[in-house]
Write a structure and sequence with these properties.
7TM_GPCR_Srx domain-containing protein; membrane; 3 helices; transmembrane helix; 98 residues; mainly alpha; transmembrane
Length: 98
């Protein structure tokens, strides 16, 4: 199989970098959400539970997705190989829960 051209690899690294930066931003917002909602007494307990559960699900999803992206940055073998199957399974389960 022929290796992809340099332009395609550069474009792929650009998209991976953009996704990784977006994941860091989403993780920061979810952690901020947890820090604000956790100690508040103004919300109904059911709503508070729903919002905390949603933030935890987002944090777990971002961590699993980042765990799939980081090895692609580190390895120089093949950028277009699929991620670890175990991580893909957990990623799909988090999407099913959401």
């Amino acid at each position: 199989m022929a290796s992809p051209s340099g332009t395609v690899v550069l474009l792929a690294y650009t998209f991976f970098s953009f996704e990784f930066l977006t994941d860091i931003f989403v993780l920061a917002i979810a952690c901020l959400n947890l820090a604000v909602i956790g100690p508040t007494k103004l919300l109904h307990p059911n709503l508070k539970f729903i919002l905390i559960t949603q933030s935890v699900a987002v944090v777990l999803f971002v961590l699993v997705r980042s765990a799939m992206l980081v090895p692609k940055f580190i390895s120089t073998d093949d950028l277009f190989t699929p991620a670890n199957l175990i991580l893909q399974k957990y990623s799909v389960e988090y999407l099913a829960i959401r």
